[in-house]
Amino acid sequence: MLLTTSASIYAQDLKGDAKKGETLFKTNCSACHALDKQMVGPALGGVVDRLKTEQNLGVDWFQKWIRDNKALRASGDKYANEVFEKFNKVEMTAFPNLTDQDIADLLEYTTNPPKAEPAAAETDVNSPEAIKAAQDEKNNSSALLISLAAVGGLLLWLLFRLTQLVNLHRKSGEISALDATRINSIGEFYEKYNTLGKALMGLLALFALYGIWNWLMWVGVYKGYQPEQPIYFSHKIHAGENKIDCQLCHSSAKYGKVSEIPSVNVCMNCHKGISEYKGKYIEEGKSREFYTAEIKKIYEAAGWDEGSQSYTGKTKPIEWVRIHNMPDFVYFNHAQHVVAGEQTIIKAKKVDVVCKACHGQVQEMDKVQMANNFTMGWCIDCHRTTEVDMTNGYNKEYYQKLHDKLKKQYGGETKMTVDAIGGLECGKCHY
């Protein structure tokens, strides 16, 4: 959105409020503009004086441009058409709802943006309070050292006294008689406790076999697996804070066997116009600058030049680390589960999106991790507990006879679950 003019050249007696203008700018303009750099549209910092000097344009021109730039271009306005051609013929959104005061506020913000509040001053190390605190810390350290020295001295005295007592008993012969009853080697110990030793060895062997068996049962089970990715992607920001639907990025999940990793052009659909992070949510240990730097990695992969707002053709593949990966002997179809499960799984598992039944609360994950075991037992348990939606017209007609049979066999309150319609057949998953 091309905004220009300053309070000094207003034709109207309207004084702009930079604070209000900042709010309006963030709401209406920040997707395409910044004050200090070119994005989809030009940088707007200081643009008022620049266009007044270079084009001799006043407030009336800018009001026409902001409210309906298409009509202004159609009128034959030279500069309006030059701007349109320069920025790749990207048509700016019209804002007919903005009042003269709103525009004055926006223009004031582009000319005199509010200064950031200064950081709190650091504590003066030479202040009386700082000197007193340092002295107190020194006194505490000295007291601690004296206490430790006293405890050390007491322990040394106790050791000396115990040595004296042992030597006294050795002279009396009591220690020598006690030594004669002691076991001095492992062999002597084994001979003395032969039966107990064999029992313990057998018990240890059983524990070892159990440990090996338990380890084998967890081969290929990676619940909690959370690898580092080449570009830090926070699902909490995208799916949680911004409420982006899973299938906007993973579009093949509903119609294909595999839910593919989105290609970089999917990322650029949004990030072509979002070059820096300005959200409120910041993960502990991270910063807005950190998230912005990760966006730049997307640009590098896509070959996007921010300055010219064009692709260079020099692309770089993003080597994502796969998290969920079924073994080769397992058949799993995303489309089958997403389409059929949108009703059944949501009702049975009490989740709002079917994806969460397997992948967990992804919208709360900064770094995605494997949320479940994905063992055969886990899948079977899901099929045994997930109800088929019998209010669905197709299911009600197709499974009615089977449902009546189950009710007759197990009682009138019997629910139709996935295992009853073939969910436990080996050939469904193994072929």
Automatic annotation (TrEMBL):
Start and end residues of each Cytochrome c domain: 16-114
Extent of the signal sequence: none
Iron-sulfur listed as a keyword: no
Top-level lineage group: Bacteria
A molecular function GO annotation: electron transfer activity
Keyword Cytoplasm among record annotations: no
InterPro entries for this protein: Cyt_c-like_dom (IPR009056), Cyt_c-like_dom_sf (IPR036909), Multihaem_cyt_sf (IPR036280)
Transmembrane segments annotated in the record for this chain: 142-160, 199-221
Protein name (database record): Class III cytochrome C family protein
